Prior knowledge:
Blueprint: E1 2-7, H1 9-12, H2 18-33, E2 37-42, H3 45-57, H4 62-84, H5 96-104, E3 109-111, H6 120-131, E4 135-140, E5 145-146, E6 158-159, E7 161-162, H7 164-170, H8 186-192, E8 198-203, H9 208-215, E9 221-223
Parallel strand pairs: 1-2, 1-4, 2-3, 4-8, 7-9
Antiparallel strand pairs: 5-6, 8-9
Helix pairs in contact: 2-4, 3-4, 6-8
Amino acid sequence: MRFVLRIGGSVIASPIDSVLISRYADLLKRLKTQGHDVVVIIGGGALAREFIGVAKDLGLDERSQDEVAISISRIFAQLFLQRLGELGCEAIPLTIEDTVKCLHEGKITVMGGLKPGMTTDTVAALVVEQINAELFIKATDQEGIYDKDPRKHVDAVKFEHISFDDLLHVFDEDKHKAGIHQILDPEAVKILRKGIVKVVIVNGFEPENILLAIKGEKIGTTIL
Length: 224
């Protein structure tokens, strides 16, 4: 199977969890040896948002804030890449074309952000579109998508399935801004809804959930 995995910074980087990063790296190695084509996009999490705050305090514009966040996401991608060893690309892809090239070389592709104005969710969606992925998995800090923020509302209800149309009504933000933090970026939704790829949102603190999603088992929230 050819799939794209987006690991939220809220999972492995808020705070930084070296044990979880290692578990993901081992899982990716296993999936690659099983014949899967894998592209992984890593977010910068709380550390990226902290540096965005510093950039704001320095009076930097939103483009500059984004550039700082992109640098942080690439640092985490570099950690993954080093941990993967020979199975990973030689370097972090800086363009979609670099990603495709690495994938065609039979390597596990790991990347962070690409350019200002584009979240790592949107990067992942563009990769899905470019490589004709069969599955897109987003590993988050929640069990799936809820009708309202479960961190604020004890009566929040998780969706097992939700349509892209309904998804846009659930989210707080409808456009990009530096440091946006919700289950799936609205710009990414606009790209993903054009394709036929299956989208599954899972709890990323347990890497085995990725295997369940690949097997098509009931896990998290499926976006149809």
